[in-house]
């Protein structure tokens, strides 16, 4: 018996007793169990289950440096997310299809954390990926203060449901 990816996603959701199913698509199911902290205000999900036989894309760490312009933390965050979006689109994917991001922040403080959380909510909306935020003392060069890598599914354009 072959299960559809929707059926597999619902089965995964049922495995987590008391779970809140935030969003589901043919290729990914988001699960935020009541037994874990509410991550929705920070713009990420606790668990993302990917359907079997789904094509995946892995985006290398992206940064948002402008050699001729402003490189404030906020500018870097904005441009970095723009670069992630461009990379995902180049691979046939999108932010809606993102299942995991890793965020590296140099010089973390509450203002920076608040901005990153605001930006994650803005970019990912109702279907946020799982996310790990790592404070770091340095990145590749002195000017870089923010970096993101991403993992996403590539939608199956042939499925009609």
From TrEMBL:
This is Enamine deaminase RidA, house cleaning of reactive enamine intermediates, YjgF/YER057c/UK114 family. Residues 1-22 form the signal peptide. It comes from the Bacteria. It comes from Pseudovibrio denitrificans. Keywords: Signal. The keyword Signal applies. The lineage of its organism: Bacteria, Pseudomonadati, Pseudomonadota, Alphaproteobacteria, Hyphomicrobiales.
């Amino acid at each position: 018996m072959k299960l559809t990816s929707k059926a597999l996603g619902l089965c995964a959701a049922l495995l987590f007793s008391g779970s809140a199913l935030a969003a589901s698509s043919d290729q990914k199911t988001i699960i935020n169990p009541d037994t874990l902290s509410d991550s929705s205000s920070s713009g990420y999900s606790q668990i993302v289950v990917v359907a079997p036989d789904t094509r995946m894309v892995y985006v290398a760490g992206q940064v948002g440096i402008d050699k001729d312009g402003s490189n404030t933390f906020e500018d870097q965050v904005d441009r970095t997310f723009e670069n992630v979006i461009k990379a995902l689109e180049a691979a046939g994917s999108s932010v809606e299809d993102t299942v995991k991001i890793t965020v590296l922040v140099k010089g973390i403080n509450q203002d920076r954390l608040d901005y990153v959380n605001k930006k994650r909510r803005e970019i990912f909306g109702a279907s946020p990926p799982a996310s790990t935020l790592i404070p770091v003392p340095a990145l590749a060069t002195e000017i870089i203060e923010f970096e993101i890598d991403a993992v996403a599914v590539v939608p199956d354009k042939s499925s009609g449901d």
